[in-house]
Design goal:
Blueprint: E1 3-5, E2 8-10, H1 12-25, H2 27-33, H3 52-59, H4 67-75, H5 79-83, H6 99-110, H7 119-129, H8 139-144, H9 151-163, H10 165-179, H11 195-208
Antiparallel strand pairs: 1-2
């Protein structure tokens, strides 16, 4: 049986191999952006406001922020929208049409419309602030989710994959396999990552392999 991620499929053994490779080559991202091991600093030092620390962390995952982006982001007043979305809110619980999905959409829209601050930059910031709710995005992930690569449609598509019973089973198996990795394995820290982050990584690698 294969996991369904966007328009692609991957079996658990191959997924483990890909996650190992990612962990071996992205140690700084996992430590300083994701806060692994331990999921430290979830939401940042101020979960309801964008800080310079947040922006520095996103640079590690290739957000390529410009000076004008930084100034704009620090001045966005999104306190109300952040407060409506708990730090530990999960995309699995945010089916389209639910209050949580609508609150997530409003938060997403609060950071939309600034020239040059596109979907990938925004997704990397929002994932940092709410790592269980907002997927990371990049050009490869958008290829994997080519039918719904931005905004509410993208959130809804990733939600469907997270709650797909076959995927739920296989992501649990992935976590068991990651926990069982030897202490010397870089991939072991991924056992503590949100399921959403594992999906992101696999979606990016699948899109890159196209």
């Amino acid at each position: 049986m294969a996991m369904n991620i966007g328009s692609r499929k991957i079996v658990v053994d191959e997924a483990i191999a890909q996650l190992r490779l990612y962990a071996e080559t992205n140690g700084a991202v996992l430590k300083y952006y994701d806060g692994l091991p331990g999921m430290t600093n979830v939401g940042g030092s101020d979960p309801d406001r964008v800080t310079l620390e947040d922006l520095a962390r996103t640079m590690l995952i290739g957000s390529d922020l410009r000076p004008l982006d930084i100034v704009w982001l620090l001045e966005v007043d999104a306190d109300k929208e952040f407060a409506a979305v708990p730090v530990d809110a999960r995309l699995e619980d945010a089916a389209p049409g639910t209050p949580l999905f609508e609150a997530a959409t409003e938060l997403d829209e609060k950071f939309s419309g600034h020239r040059g601050f596109g979907h990938a930059k925004k997704a990397k910031l929002l994932h940092l602030k709410r790592p269980y709710l907002f997927p990371v995005s990049d050009s490869f992930i958008r290829m994997t989710y080519s039918e719904a690569s931005a905004g509410p449609d993208f959130l809804a598509a990733v939600h469907r994959d997270l709650v797909n019973p076959a995927n739920v089973r296989d992501f649990k198996l992935l976590q068991v396999r990651l926990i069982a990795e030897p202490p010397t394995s870089a991939a072991r820290v991924l056992a503590e990552a949100p399921t959403l982050r594992l999906l992101d990584i696999l979606a990016s690698l699948l899109g890159e392999a196209k």
